[in-house]
Amino acid sequence: MKKKVALVLEGGGMRGAYTAGCLSWLVDQGLEFDGNYGISTGAVHLSSFLMKNKQYLYDFSTDYIADKKIVGLQPLLREGSIVGYDYIFDHLFPEIFHFDVEKLRESAKGRIAKIGVYDLSVQKTVYKELQDMDEHYRYLKGACTLPIIGRIVPYEGGKYLDGGITDMIPIEEAERDGNDRYLVITTKPAGYVRKPAGFFLRTLMRLTYLQYPRIAADYAVRHLNYNKQISLIDALVEEKRAVYMLPSEKVDVSRLRGDKADLRRLYELGRSDMEARKEEIFALFNE
Known about the structure:
Layout: E1 5-9, H1 17-29, E2 35-39, H2 41-50, H3 54-63, H4 73-79, H5 85-97, H6 101-108, E3 112-119, E4 124-129, H7 138-144, E5 153-155, E6 158-162, H8 171-176, E7 181-185, H9 199-208, H10 213-220, H11 222-238, E8 242-245, H12 260-276, H13 278-283
Parallel strand pairs: 1-2, 1-7, 2-3, 7-8
Antiparallel strand pairs: 3-4, 3-6, 5-6
Helix pairs in contact: 1-2, 1-3, 1-12, 3-12, 9-10
């Protein structure tokens, strides 16, 4: 029986330029996956990958995401948020990027292609199929909207925020779907240890979402979930069932900060890291 191979993508904001570079390499190789899973920025890059659109991958991760209209004072004054989610999904995607929703839906058919969103209406992370993406990208917008920083994204009875509140790396969902092998791409450096959220942030989460007490509780144990997900990935690597990609060099890019030169460097690092480990990656697809 053919082994099912899954692609698993972390978020990371601007650090997602690394993911975009990795995915552009995969497009060049013509590799496709039975299962496809993305969280936060990883959900955006997953969408571009499924459409085999390297231009989307490069432009969004290296040029547009560093625009002052997207992060900083301009969106704070315009939208009341330091991240311009409305600008991205109501202006950039449809009018400048010409993001093709119909092509995305078609590209996602016949395979598992999911993005994680935290749904406040049920107070847990749920997964939406990309073949069901709405024409205004509401699922994608919800998947990228950080708590506190962004406003809740309502759509068809759901109230969505970034699924990274619980599932920073969607490896558990990929396991639940019965995949056999995994290519996991994350954006943090080797040895990264997630620390517990501080008292101030935990209090702010509780006060901001008084109607939804579960989200504050989930946020308080976020580091434990992350460590569990990393442990699962490490075990899969040990079993030779996964290839785990993460930046081989430190580049001065954080979730919400990075200039275009560094973002391009991070993108190219993703491509070169994949090339350096191509034999391991190709081996995932061998019986």
